[in-house]
Design brief:
InterPro entries: Endo/exonu/phosph_ase_sf. This protein is mainly alpha-helical. The chain has eleven helices and eleven strands. Helix 6 runs parallel beside helix 7.
Length: 310
């Protein structure tokens, strides 16, 4: 934590987006040391040259960094950059927070499910079932039932890898000590295959969660992907929010309720929102009449099919 005397990215400079050799050297050093920025709040630029007009320059030179162990054990902490006062640098404080329980997210299809030998059969059998209702209701029912079946494949392959490896190690220990049976060798071979397949699914799982696409296929990068997920969780965590009265809300439950209240007050109101919509009709560029009419036409079965098959 402190003044690194150089920015990391072009967006951290108020008047220039050029990437210099010093910036590349800093990023290389941080990557080598496996350090990453903590989630930050407050001021974006942490240094200024204290000039006015065209000569004024602001940069983000001060940083708070953490390594893999920090994000794994204290990922809910964040750095707050304060106004500089009489200095040209902004002071920074680290805010320690109790570990927050991440809320469940909506269903997400995991790509490694498609590699299962049972995947196509499960989908085909569910899609062949007959449901009553409109086509949209039928599709909804099929997808809803299919969601539960897909979750049975495995939603946390990392846990499965740990379990299978423990079984394999125990079986190998028994064979080594002469406690195995005549079928132990075949069981070991089968367990080896299951561990390899589970490890492949584990890597694909973390790769999808981390959204890293540029690593070569076949490399075992599970630990790297897991670290990226931890850093992303720390950055995505909402530590505070400002309500409609410009008051900062810090408590976890109050943050969620503030968001609900904000959008509840917007939905269904009249006057302010309607006035903004009416102002849009004053623009010269408008949608042609034939396109306006097409927006109100009923959706055809061909359009629905084309959307699903696109």
């Amino acid at each position: 934590m402190g003044d690194f005397n150089v920015t990391r990215w072009g967006t951290e400079h108020s008047s220039s987006s050029l990437v210099t050799k010093a910036m590349n050297d800093l990023n290389h050093a941080l990557h080598t040391a496996e350090l990453e920025d903590l989630k930050g709040t407050g001021l974006v630029y942490t240094w200024c040259n204290m000039r006015n007009g065209a000569g004024a320059i602001s940069k983000k030179l001060d940083r708070a960094l953490g390594n893999w162990l920090w994000f794994n054990s204290m990922g809910d902490t964040y750095a707050h950059f304060h106004p500089p006062g009489i200095s040209d640098h902004s002071p920074v404080t680290i805010h320690m927070r109790a570990s927050q329980q991440y809320c469940g997210r909506p269903f997400k299809f995991l790509n490694f499910w498609a590699q299962s030998e049972h995947f196509l059969n499960v989908v085909s059998q569910e899609w062949a079932k007959v449901y009553s209702g409109s086509p949209l209701v039928v599709i909804h029912q099929k997808l809803k039932c299919l969601k539960g079946l897909l979750k049975e494949f495995c939603t946390r392959p990392d846990s499965k890898v740990v379990e299978l490896r423990a079984c394999l190690h125990q079986l190998q220990q028994d064979i080594h000590e002469g406690l195995g049976t005549s079928s132990s060798i075949e069981q070991e071979r089968q367990l080896r295959l299951e561990v390899l397949n589970a490890a492949r699914d584990e890597e694909a799982f973390f790769k999808q969660k981390s959204r890293i696409q540029w690593l070569k296929e076949g490399d075992s990068n599970t630990a790297f992907f897991h670290r990226v997920v931890k850093v992303r969780q720390s950055w995505n965590h909402l530590v505070r929010i400002k309500d409609d009265n410009d008051t900062w809300i810090l408590a976890e439950a109050d943050i969620a309720q503030t968001g609900v209240n904000h959008f509840s007050n917007i939905l269904g109101t009249s006057g302010r929102i309607a006035g903004r919509v009416c102002n849009l009709f004053g623009y010269d560029k408008q949608i042609a009449t034939e396109y306006k009419n097409s927006l109100g036409c009923p959706i055809t079965a061909q359009e629905v099919k084309a959307a699903f098959w696109s």
